[in-house]
Amino acid sequence: MQLKRLSLFNFRNYGEATLEFSKGIHIIHGENGAGKTSILEAIHYLGLTKSFRTTTDKHLIRHDEAMFRIEGAFTDSHDNDMDTILAYSKDQGKHLTINGHKAQKFSEYIGEVPLVLLHPADLSLSQGSPQQRRRFLDVLLSQSSKLYLHHLIQYNRSLKQRNMLLQTPYSDVNLLSSWEENLISHGTEIILKRRRTATQLSELVSSYYRELSKSDDTVEVEYKCNVSQKDDEGDLEEAYRRLFATKRNMEIENGSTMLGPHRDDLIFRINGNPMKVVASQGEHKTFVIALKLAEFQHLEQQRSEAPILLFDDIFGELDAGRIYLMLQQLGNMGQVFVTTTSANFFEKMHDMETPTHYYLVTDGSVMAEV
């Protein structure tokens, strides 16, 4: 997938701006606070219909304005064009238009513009909370499978309803059982898909890690399920149902659902040991980069389309060697957008075969450099 043109209206600190892009690596540089990350945020918003910096759309509106609009012109590997407009106003909410037609369900659009994001918070993915790792899986799988996204939406709705019942005095057991069946149905599909994907990612991550680290260390990715480790759907459903019956009184007492994919985790290992326990900071960072490259390849295989890569100001966190090796990996992959406070490092990389384009950002305005 390639972004050919991006237009911003009252988005963050941009009043109005239009940028033209082509193939290769796009270096977006400027001082802190100038608006570099906002460009990547807008691209992310066009792909996933949400920001990676805030959960509140109104925070994206330029100061003293009532709405914002983002427009993107895309083309895929088969030269099919797609024009996407996402607009949000305080009065009317969010609206998505694709090739002139208003979308009724945003979920049906997710995955049409596949993308992979790496920003500073992601560098703690291997050390952070299980919630962060679950979100990584959900974003990946929601882009690669519309069926997975359907199950995830329905699961979260059922989970919310069951938790509300659990918090009600004298919870109705029959109603709880009804919502439990929904959770079992959708949760089983989520668990099986996550487990298969974790196995696939493990092989890819191991290969990328060896290339980036220039070592013989082995790394693994394992999906840890709190319901059952069995892969058979029938066995998983039965274990799920049995555990609900066992834990129901405890869940009523706590007022929340204690088992299911919303409590699962990804376990990362290096040389057979948990990374959280034994890995150095450099090993953690190298692993996360390898994981993101694996995410890219998995998405490309599932969608038959190269995702857009977004790298937000991560180069201050990495040494020059890792940057160079990573960009070598990216060279033959797809369209890449990189933000940085200094373009000097990239200008020294004369042997990069991939076309590299530079954009200078100064206080909400962008200028392409020739």
Fold-level CATH name of one domain: Rossmann fold
In spatial order, strands of the major sheet run: 2-1-4-5-6-7
How many E strands?
15
Cα shape = globular
Helix/strand/pairing category: alpha/beta
Largest sheet: 6 strands, antiparallel
CATH class of one domain: Alpha Beta
Helix content: 40-55%
Tally of alpha and pi helices? 9
Strand content: 15-25%
SSE string, helices as H and strands as E: EEEHEEEEEHHHEHEEHHEHEHEE
Query: Segments where pLDDT lies below 50 for 5+ residues?
Result: none
Using only CA atoms, what is the Rg? 22 Å
Overall mean confidence score, pLDDT: 91
Write the CATH homologous superfamily of one domain: P-loop containing nucleotide triphosphate hydrolases
- Report, as a whole number of angstroms, the end-to-end distance: 24 Å
Q: What is the name of the CATH architecture of one domain?
A: 3-Layer(aba) Sandwich
Commentary on this structure:
With 370 residues, this protein is of the alpha/beta class. It has a domain at 1-114 and 306-370: Rossmann fold (3-Layer(aba) Sandwich), CATH 3.40.50. 42% of the residues lie in helices and 24% in strands. The protein has 9 helices and 15 strands. The strands form 3 sheets. The protein has a 6-stranded antiparallel beta sheet with strand order 2-1-4-5-6-7, covered by helices on one side. The chain has a 6-stranded mixed beta sheet with strand order 8-12-13-3-14-15, with helices on both faces. A 3-stranded antiparallel beta sheet has the order 9-10-11. The longest helix is centred in the middle third of the chain and has 41 residues, at 173-213. The two termini are 24 Å apart. The mean pLDDT is 91.
